[in-house]
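Morning. Coffee machine broken again, so started the prediction first thing and wrote up yesterday's gels while waiting. Chain of 288 residues, entered below exactly as on the submission form.
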Amino acid sequence: MPARPRPLTPTRSARHLFGAKMRAYRGGMSLERLAEIVNFSKSHLARVETADSMPPPELPALLDAAFDTDGIFGELYQLARNESLPDQLQRRMELEAQACVIAEYTCQVVPGLVQTADFARALFKAHYPRATEDTIEEMVNRRMIRQGVFLRDNPPDYSAILDEAVLRRGFGGPAVMRAQLTRLIHFMLNSTGVVQVLPFAYGGHPLVGGSLALFTLDDGAQVAWEEGSDSGTLMEDLERATARRRSYDLLRSCALSPSESAAFIQSVLDTLPDEYGPLAYPAPMGRP
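Came back before lunch.
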């Protein structure tokens, strides 16, 4: 008896709607037959249909031609590729858990995968000032669970580029930052992870306004996640993911080496005060 097809959830997101329409329009046509028509593997089409994979950019036009749907799949693809939180955030977490290579750039905060619990707690309290303690602790626990990717049998290769601001901008007070910077140094020295610092002296660059995560999956697929202060965009099409990879590679070539970065982080650690004092504002122009 053939397995029953997996139920679809077209109301969940544009990507899910794309898959549901794909199944609906193929009707009694098998995935094997559709694979022959559009020249994609059956397994790839199955993942698109169940929304486990983003449709590749060339597939919508092929489906519109195969089903004579007058651009419907092209329109759905444009919605899906620009879809933002929260569905894309969930997809980002899934990719992070599956990736064999993870590369990140952050301009303001330590990446979640290498945060201490106290740093994460201070970060969440700053970002969600009205959240209850229980809510904050739940978010911290979820972040710590994400770090389990480094404990699995085949942990991902990990690299991160940190803007100097990440080291200078304190969260939670000097004690929290001291533990966080120490964690970064230990991570660099005791794992296969690579952390590099991009100093202020480098100047401006294309990624300065946000953060970037790049995921390489076991099948070689490249996915990018670009995030601002309150929104994120998942890019599963090769063209945009490749463009973000080039930007990342440029920053990596200009960042300090891993050993220089460790020394730089140590120098910031050594200058941390016991407590943060009041801010000293400069006097207005023309006044003493």
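The first strand starts at residue 101 and ends at 106. Going to sketch it on the whiteboard this afternoon.
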